[in-house]
Amino acid sequence: MCGIVGYIGDKDAYPIIIKGLQRLEYRGYDSAGIALSQGSDITILKQKGKVSDLEEYAADKNRKGTIGIGHTRWATHGVPNQKNAHPHSSGDGKLAIIHNGIIENYDSIKRMLSEKGHEFTSDTDTEVLIHLIEEIKNHEQCKLFEAVRLSLNEVIGAYAIVVMEEGNKEEFIAARKGSPLVIGIGAEEYFIASDATPIIEYTRDVVYLEDGEVARVNRNEKLEIKTISNIRKNPYIHELEMSLDSIEKGGYPHFMLKEIFEQPSSVLDTLRGRINPETKEVKLGGLMDYEQKLTKANRIIIVACGTSWHAGLIGEYLFEDLARIPVEVEYASEFRYRNPIIKENDIVLAISQSGETADTLAALELAKEKGSTILGICNVVGSSIARLTDAGVYTHAGPEIGVASTKAFTTQVAVLTLMALKIARLKGTITTSNFRNMITELEMISDNVEKVLKSNKLIKEVAAEFKNVQNFLYLGRGYNFPVALEGALKLKEISYIHAEGYPAAEMKHGPIALIDEEMPIVVIATKMGNYEKVVSNIQEVKARGGRLIAIVTEGDITVKELADYVIEIPECSEQLTPLLTNIPLQLLSYYIAVMRGCNVDQPRNLAKSVTVE
Ligand code: M6R
To answer: Helices H, strands E: what count in the chain?
Structure first.
């Protein structure tokens, strides 16, 4: 979702900001813009489309300035066009703002400002906010820092904003509530961005702005931070750990393919240090103080969105099966608005790659208000969800840039497996031999992911065969039902082919009507679990002429005879199959999307990090 980048220092701001915006392209956007100043006037350049369109537009314009703010906009209020693109300026043109989020009460503020004579040139809520700041600054005769703080007291909604002022090339003001902002500290220079990716090549020292904080970022001074209710805060400087390599394509044509192929190492990173090599016991440092709460939990409520919700469904099977704890998996967007019942000894567990998804964050806040213990599984270190939760486990997948989640999903499932095993062991709901078997298999999982990736060529052939179809059906049972849902989501989001995931047995209650010679059906039919039952479902598909792509266990004979294409995974316990079966489905979606000419890393209308509801 919208990206923010800013720079103050003695260097040319334009190339730094453009590069930063390119690094944020993965978040999804439909227009881009930049405001620059040398100290006097503010130049604003903006354009519909990609950052490259902005660069083309700006090529013959004034791009001078040692202070600048840049933005990629994902349209909420007003269509994506040049006039609605950020930055927006105040009525007198002396202030410029970039904003990520939604000002919910913008309409009433706009009416109040219009009555005072303000005129607006865009359809955005953001322009209303900068006029409000201008109005308050003039009325109160105060500095910009104070004007921003006072204005935010009038605002309902979510925001990350950066505001700069004509005549002041030393300073900008930033604030956040609900949308992330990171400030990078250099030598007499500051950077600001929606996440650390635009900052990492310049400095490792960063301050994550907290919700409800306003910062005065002046290049000659230390950071000054206050809450919007005017309480002074001490900035806490974190050291970034990510590497520059991890946010570049490394020779792959797309981030998505790179991230699919990174899975052997990302899963290894997730497991690293969490299985004792001698005792073979699981240790989750982040949850150590909550072990008792987890073993005594009456219920775990998992809240998440999209792919992370699918990982949560696998978590449900794992926790119930291994640790014997009842689980509910909720769409965060539904949970937050339905007055949920949370009882004593219930634990709410959020799963989120970005740690910034607005609905998941709000669901957690609600659970916290209701007195629940809130835990998290996040990928992005220091993200809002990671900071809000009482405790949690990082997935350590490394930055995921492709909008379609791949390695984030696999590593979330790996963490859920570790958690379920740990609780099961503490509660004694798993036999020692089963526990040891699963640990041995987990230790081999990275090699097995590597083996599955070797089917790459075959999957490309399958993709070529099916790239022009209109619909796809994905079927699975038990642990692989959520994998079927995830496979369907992956295909539709990047190839725009309509796809649905179903529990295989549910097919005969409706979707079977769709099956004819045109319909490809991807079925997960690994040994263990409900193999025979899935074979019966396959027979039902075959009897109606459907074309079958089956994911099977190595050495399978029965399904091989029935299916048109067969992709093998190494044998493993049913509980661990999702870590392997999801990989061919990622590759299938990837190749179909590439063959259809789709932009796989930035699919239309989608954003990587959904920071608005
Ligand atoms: O960052 P999160 O895991 O909270 O994101 C949730 C969803 O927006 C996300 O999983 C989305 O469904 C994926 N990009 C799909 O591939």
So the answer is: 20, 25
Instruction: Tell me which residues have their CB closer than 6 angstroms to ligand 1.
Output: 305-308, 352-354, 357, 360, 403-405, 493, 609-610
CB 397 within 8 A of CB 270: yes
Ligand 1: atom nearest CA of 309 is 10
- Please check whether the two domains, 251-448 and 454-602, share a CATH topology: yes
Distance 408 CA to ligand 1 centre (A): 9
Alpha helices per DSSP H over 248-321: 255-261, 263-271, 291-296, 306-318
Average pLDDT over residues 154-176: 95
* Partners of 208 in the β-ladder: 182
The topology (CATH level 3) of 454-602 is Rossmann fold (3.40.50)
Catalytic position from the list 2, 378, 572, 598: 2
Whether 121 and 127 have beta carbons less than 8 Å apart is answered as: yes
Ligand 1 atom closest to the CA of 412, numbered from 1? 3
State CA 68 to chain mean position distance. 27
DSSP letters along 152-186, please? HTT--EEEEEEEEETT-SSEEEEEEEBS--EEEE-
Check residue 275 and report its DSSP letter. B
State the burial class of residue 533 (Cβ atoms within 10 Å of its Cβ: 0-12, 13-18, 19+): middle
Task: Let me know if 608 is a catalytic residue.
Answer: yes
Q: Which CATH architecture has domain 3-240?
A: 4-Layer Sandwich (3.60)
| 463 Cα to the center of ligand 1, angstroms | 24
For 562-588, the pLDDT digits (tens) are: 999 999 999 999 999 999 999 999 999
- In CATH terms, the superfamily for domain 251-448 is Glucose-6-phosphate isomerase like protein; domain 1 (3.40.50.10490)
Looking at the CA of residue 354, tell me the nearest atom of ligand 1.
1
| 431: its two tokens | 């036999």
How sure is the predictor about 1, in pLDDT bands with cuts at 50, 70 and 90?
low
Distance from Cα 304 to the centre of ligand 1, integer Å: 9
pLDDT-derived band at 419 (thresholds 50, 70, 90) equals very high
Domains of the chain by residue range: 3-240, 251-448, 454-602
Q: Catalytic: 83?
A: no
Query: What is the pTM (predicted TM-score) of this model?
Result: 0.80
